[in-house]
């Protein structure tokens, strides 16, 4: 695959088997899908790139905007200050059925301050931007003259020519060198992939067959597709749909709601014992107004 405009790779179209029947039920059934040729960014949008967009467009992200009290009639938030969800590791094993054990709402958290007002992206220009909602990602793509990829485009590109493979590199489990995923016991002990705890700079892990970096692990990535429940009935023995991406807050199930979009790729928080979603077939529903410390995006053209 040849590189074209800065950061973009030309992906030749083709037909592939999309999805999986071997892991989580929302990934099935496997269907044969044709994708036309398109271009995809070699890596996720970085803090440096997003900062250039904000400076030029004067854009204010979802996490930086005042909250509407009407959206929280039950008083679930202690503060209505702008903010976002921040991953906070626990100090010991906890009930993995309750994502609230490791996620908290932090006023002042945004792409500039991913973990709260006292945090910063200084020295992290090359890391993927996080704390960006679907609207934020879409706004950047439009500014850049690009777009977000469809779910099918994303998965086809992630496979890098390995049709039907479990991982973007083949069948071997991740040993911490292939993708930035949780290394240890979730959510309290992470030894880091190649030493990275949290996001790693883009390009830190080996590219797939199409020359694309971090198509799984590092950050979940927004796609343009509305979430639809297009899967087979869930057998009693199947792994549960879990909460959103298996390591974060839940999004509504079902389908056809434009306020819920498909995330792909898994993140640095994915752990085999809890969220084995750093695979090309893995997918997750996410509310479009959500911004967290493990969601980013890349652009297509």
Automatic annotation (TrEMBL):
<dbReference type="Pfam" id="PF03781">
    <property type="entry name" value="FGE-sulfatase"/>
</dbReference>
<dbReference type="InterPro" id="IPR016187">
    <property type="entry name" value="CTDL_fold"/>
</dbReference>
<feature type="domain" description="Sulfatase-modifying factor enzyme-like">
    <location>
        <begin position="6"/>
        <end position="300"/>
    </location>
</feature>
<dbReference type="InterPro" id="IPR051043">
    <property type="entry name" value="Sulfatase_Mod_Factor_Kinase"/>
</dbReference>
<dbReference type="InterPro" id="IPR042095">
    <property type="entry name" value="SUMF_sf"/>
</dbReference>
<dbReference type="GO" id="GO:0120147">
    <property type="term" value="F:formylglycine-generating oxidase activity"/>
</dbReference>
<protein>
    <submittedName>
        <fullName>Formylglycine-generating enzyme, required for sulfatase activity, contains SUMF1/FGE domain</fullName>
    </submittedName>
</protein>
<dbReference type="InterPro" id="IPR005532">
    <property type="entry name" value="SUMF_dom"/>
</dbReference>
């Amino acid at each position: 695959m040849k590189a074209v405009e800065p950061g973009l790779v030309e992906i030749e179209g083709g037909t592939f088997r999309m999805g999986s029947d071997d892991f989580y039920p929302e990934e099935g059934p496997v269907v044969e899908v044709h994708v036309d040729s398109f271009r995809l960014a070699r890596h996720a949008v970085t803090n440096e790139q997003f900062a250039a967009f904000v400076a030029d467009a004067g854009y204010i992200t979802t996490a930086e905007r005042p909250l509407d009290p009407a959206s929280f009639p039950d008083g679930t938030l202690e503060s209505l200050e702008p903010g976002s969800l921040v991953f906070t590791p626990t100090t010991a094993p906890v009930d993995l059925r309750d994502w609230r054990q490791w996620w908290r709402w932090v006023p002042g958290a945004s792409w500039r301050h991913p973990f709260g007002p006292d945090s910063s992206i200084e020295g992290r220009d090359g890391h993927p931007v996080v704390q960006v909602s679907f609207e934020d990602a879409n706004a950047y793509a439009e500014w850049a003259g690009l777009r977000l990829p469809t779910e099918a485009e994303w998965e086809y590109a992630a496979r890098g020519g390995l049709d039907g493979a479990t991982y973007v590199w083949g069948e071997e489990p991740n040993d911490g060198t292939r993708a930035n995923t949780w290394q240890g016991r979730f959510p309290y002990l992470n030894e880091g992939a190649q030493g990275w705890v949290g996001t790693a700079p883009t390009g830190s892990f080996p590219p797939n067959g199409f020359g694309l970096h971090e198509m799984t692990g590092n950050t979940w990535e927004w796609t343009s597709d509305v979430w639809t429940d297009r899967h087979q009935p869930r057998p009693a023995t199947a792994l549960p749909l879990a909460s959103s991406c298996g390591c974060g807050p839940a999004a509504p199930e079902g389908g056809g709601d434009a306020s819920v979009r498909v995330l792909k790729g898994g993140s640095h928080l994915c752990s085999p014992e809890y969220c084995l979603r750093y695979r090309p077939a893995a997918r997750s529903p996410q509310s479009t107004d959500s911004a967290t410390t493990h969601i980013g995006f890349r652009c297509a053209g």
